[in-house]
Write a structure and sequence with these properties.
Rossmann fold; 2 domains; alpha/beta; single chain; 6 helices; 10% strand; 5-stranded parallel beta sheet; rod-shaped; Helix Hairpins
Length: 218
């Protein structure tokens, strides 16, 4: 949609800001008798046509829509008399309504975005805390596994001694084997938990990236 804005005051500027964010709308002109009006200055920075002669805008019959935001009845009448047949006209009252509706939507969108970001940050922190707790648990399991390995080694030594002296080291050998098996299972458990924890931290990293992307789009 191609449109022109008549009136480069604060409302004209705010409408321009809003429309510049919409891919489906192209602002072709903005007009104001004051060349230093805020909307005119913004349009010049954005390489949008500006003019102090509103009729230049009105007589461009390729425009789909003209927004009149001056609030001057004579301006509205002049636009109505000279605009193209297929060009729609929104008066200052309608333009203010458009602005308010879009502002309300943007405010709602920003509030929703803030809520989502806060929730994701909370989830991120909870996952981070859980990951740290898992690391502490892993350290404990690793210490237990180390102790089990020492017990298995001692049991094997005692089994060898008992067998060498009295030929009855079988009991120690069985204990040593069971301790070794337990130690092996503990080591495997540690590996599995570390892999899960890595996946959790990768997920948390992605959540952090999404939060930054959302902040950038806000």
């Amino acid at each position: 949609m191609k449109l022109g804005i008549i009136g480069g005051g604060e409302i004209g500027k705010k409408l321009l800001e809003i429309f510049l964010k919409m891919d489906s709308i192209k602002v072709e002109y903005i007009s104001d008798i004051n060349n230093d009006a805020p909307g005119i200055r913004m349009a010049e920075k954005k390489k949008i046509k500006t003019t102090s002669n509103m009729m230049e805008v009105v007589k461009d019959h390729s425009l789909d829509l003209i927004l009149e935001v001056t609030g001057v009845s004579e301006v509205l009448s002049a636009i109505e008399d000279n605009k193209g047949e297929n060009t729609e006209l929104i008066s200052s009252e309608g333009s203010y309504l458009v602005y308010n509706v879009i502002e309300e939507y943007n405010n709602f969108q920003n509030q929703l975005l803030t809520t989502v970001i806060n929730h994701l940050n909370q989830v991120y922190q909870e996952i981070e805390d859980d990951s740290q707790n898992i690391n502490k648990l892993l350290e404990q399991i690793q210490r237990i596994t180390k102790n089990l390995n020492m017990l298995a080694l001692n049991a094997s030594i005692e089994a060898a001694r008992a067998d060498a002296k009295q030929g009855n080291g079988k009991g120690f050998a069985i204990v040593a084997d069971e301790v070794k098996n337990l130690s092996s299972r503990s080591s495997q458990l540690v590996d599995n938990i570390e892999e899960i924890n890595k996946d959790i931290r990768d997920l948390n990293g992605r959540i952090s990236e999404v939060v930054e992307e959302l902040k950038g789009n806000g």
